[in-house]
Batch of 3 targets.
Target 1
Amino acid sequence: MFDVIIAGCGPTGAMLAAELRLHDVRVLVLEKETEPKSFVRVVGLHIRSLELMAMRGLLDRILRHGRQRPAGGFFAAISKPAPQGLDSAHAYLVGIPQPVIERLLEEHAIELGAQVRHGCAVAGFEQDEEGVTVELDGGERLRSRYLVGCDGGRSTVRKLLGVGFPGQPSRTETLMGEMEVGVPQEEIAAKVREISQAHQRFWLRPFGEGVYSVLVPAAGVGDRAEPPTLEDFRQQLRTIAGTDFGVHSPRWMSRFGDATRLAERYRIGRVLLAGDAAHIHPPIGGQGLNLGVQDAFNLGWKLAAQIRGWAPETLLDTYQTERHPVAEDVLDNTRAQTELLSAEPGPQAVRRLLTELMDFDEVNRHLIEKITAIGIRYDFGAGPDLLGHRLRDIEVKQGRLYDLLHRGRGLLLDRTERLSAGRWSDRVDYLADPRADLDDACVLLRPDGHVAWIGDDQRDLDDHLSRWFGKPAD
Ligand SMILES: Cc1cc2nc3c(=O)[nH]c(=O)nc-3n(C[C@H](O)[C@H](O)[C@H](O)COP(=O)(O)OP(=O)(O)OC[C@H]3O[C@@H](n4cnc5c(N)ncnc54)[C@H](O)[C@@H]3O)c2cc1C
């Protein structure tokens, strides 16, 4: 008997497993593949995800394997620098191959005690009042209290759960891969400069040792389960660029579409969905993996609280009420960005206009805060602007705030030195620091770093501690 079975050990499943283990939840992750992903595409970790990594002591590992880049230039690939003074101690982007971030997150989950079984696909399940019986493709049956589908865009769990996945199918597809080329670099660079002015979904970028990363629109929308062939790449390069650049010896080849869909519900009873299993959208702006990891961060402590028995009655429901609107917004911004990438004259004119508007600091800032997810504010009711936002990694007397959040517990940061979270000390840490770099007297942080309360009154604080952390231990 496990507490939680997670289907899928992609970035979302691995992050969720680690978050649950911080609270001693018995976790089993079932991953259908036996080997790491064959593609090595580089994904961008945006500011909020980097903050989450810092909050769990993972950022240094990630920085060792990734490349830091400026945070700007991501909305519809419009090349504008990030505005000055973004409200984060980690205001940059890290480019990192997806298999590497997956490995780092899986290692982190295993270090914390999660069990991961590769080569096991979830094929079916049944839920009852006490738990879920999960059936593997080989027929084995396992029992857990909860099941979370982190099994990607074609999620078996979502389909078996019967949750609607409304949205739009792919209208276009793009081929992506890494391969060697047969013409000199200067010739490629000149041609790419010329073609990419009219085609946003086109590049050949040197990747080292004669290997290029190639991106080119596909001829139509095909079967995404079928990988493209080298001939598909050659043909499309000839159609778009007039030459196939002599491409040969591919390292890997894949295709992706621009389907946009959002699960109607994130939870039915004891079965939940997170990451691509709950939402898919085009990769423009590089948000999918970030969104999934952030889902896991939101869900982990709530599901753990439910299992540990201290969750207030509606806590687990806030996973959907908080994260569904965030995904809706990401889907919308990717729809907008996709339009802005069209080569048609109308969208091109809108793109030029938006490019001008982004010279206004507020417009640029708004778009960057959206893409990087630092602008997210959950609806915790009326209150100061910071309420519901995440708190940046401020300086406190012991060093940095995020270093105090590694254990995934709540934190009461008290500049008045006269408040207490003592009755909740098994779930909430306390830091008295009159000189903390904060405008407010006192803030209560949830384990995901969002501000759950601001004030200086103990009785009001106790109400909010109960709201988020349940009844105090006797
Ligand atoms: C070209 C491209 C570029 C991208 N660039 C970025 C970027 O820069 N930044 C970004 O944030 N995102 C990016 N993304 C999106 C990102 O790759 C996905 O959003 C991310 O992988 C989702 O993670 P996940 O863990 O939710 O799902 P997945 O990564 O799909 O993982 C799901 C896992 O579940 C396993 N699985 C499936 N079915 C079962 C089953 N029945 N039982 C057990 N296991 C199962 C799969 O093998 C897989 O390991 C990009 C996507 C594409 C296509």
Note: The chain has a mean pLDDT of 95.
Target 2
Amino acid sequence: MITDVVAGVDIGGTNTVYGLVDKKGKVISEGKLRTTDYPKIGNFVTALVEAINKLLSRKPGYRLAGVGIGAPNANYHKGTIELAPNLAWKGIVPLADLIRKKIDVPVVLTNDANAAAMGEMIFGGAKKMKNFIVLTLGTGLGSGIVINGQLVYGHTGFAGELGHTIIVPGGRDCGCGRQGCFETYASASGLVKTVLYLLSEMRDESILRRIPPEKLTSKMIADAAAKKDPVAVEAMEYTAEHLGFGIINAIVFSSPEAVFLFGGLANAGDMLFVPVRKYVEENVQPIFRGTVKILPSGIAESNAAVLGAAALIWNEQN
Ligand SMILES: [Zn+2]
């Protein structure tokens, strides 16, 4: 018997991870390429297709049904990666077409946060939901928005950039060239920025003062907050309020059943979720009170990127 599998591929600035995923969300085998080893897109595509074929050749009985890809600045409508600042490939890269020339299967491409939302819908905590939002809280803040059972891609294919909605006019500088974007406050790196600011403002003793600024991570801060370090506690509170503020804006826009928090900062667990839920309940417009669950992702972080990318194809086959 031949079983269909999908290749899920997550292209990051440093590494590309890929795996074969069956319809139930089981990762059958996986591998990794260093994205930076392929400054030319043609060489990258050749290496990726060879790597996928190699996985398939080791697993007789499986047939490739498609390739789903999560990548920065990916355009779902066109199958392109466009002007991605963290990748060596400049301009507009027709990735889906380049791959289809080598393997004749459907190829679907979107950004990693949209892929995470699709993973949540097909394999994770949003299985029965038609309206939800996934926020990925890593170096930046990515978002995937599902409305009426469909991911929102928008006119350009780049919809759902909640990380670049401005929540503090004239606030922190953002990588996008503007100031006060949501992601500069509510992300793993936003939390670090908050701690650096508070260390200069607060006189309290803090174990975080002993860590060189460039070595500070959101995990260290969460650990310090768990031990009631005053600067870390204040930083978590400040971050939770800003995250809550951005979530409220998203709630009044699309009335989701749930907002899933994923990655880096979300690993702080209750220290983040408890104050965020409280802030949202107290400050959201009354008609939305008690209507939105704020939840951790239902997908294990280790598999999430590959599962999300694979879900793009499984979703279109259902
Ligand atoms: Zn921005």
Note: Residues 164, 174, 176, 178, 181 surround zinc ion (CB under 6 Å).
Target 3
Amino acid sequence: MFNLEQFIADCRAALKADSSHKSVREVVARAVSDPAGVLKGLGEPKRAEVQKLYHAPDLTILNVIWAPMMTVMPHNHLMWAVIGIYSGREDNVFWRRLPDNHRRVEAAGARSLCVGDAEPLGHNIIHSVTNPIPRLTGAIHVYGGDFFAAHRSEWDAETLLEGRFDAERALRRFEEANETYKHFAS
Ligand SMILES: [Fe+2]
């Protein structure tokens, strides 16, 4: 069964051995290879939210639960990340800056993530995330830095122009999604 303290210790040891995402990715892959164990260890997803599981200057571990059909706008992290899916699905669209307008992005690729996938994201990745299924999706997100302190960007969903990442607005999106989900559920 998934043990959070052990998982944190394993991530810390992996980071010490290798400051890139490679060793941490193996730790995440091992965890989500037993999705039932993660569900037991973290609990069944009940509502859309971001749970802080561990937070240090060089490592952040989140339990991200996406509402059904929820989408977050393109954003960067400015640190590597590993996303491990233990329930549901995540579709990631990857974006790149336009060569002639660095404030604007265009879609550059996509990756569909399923239960058991552990996807590494590079330092400079810009991505948006959609939960494409009509139930909650649960994912462990590990970041190679202080996720909450970085001065990041997000891109407007309509204009695709760069703006400053607003953490409170991002968290509010989860609450709004819960409201929407209530309507779906009733
Ligand atoms: Fe992200």
Note: Residues 167-185 form the longest helix (19 residues).
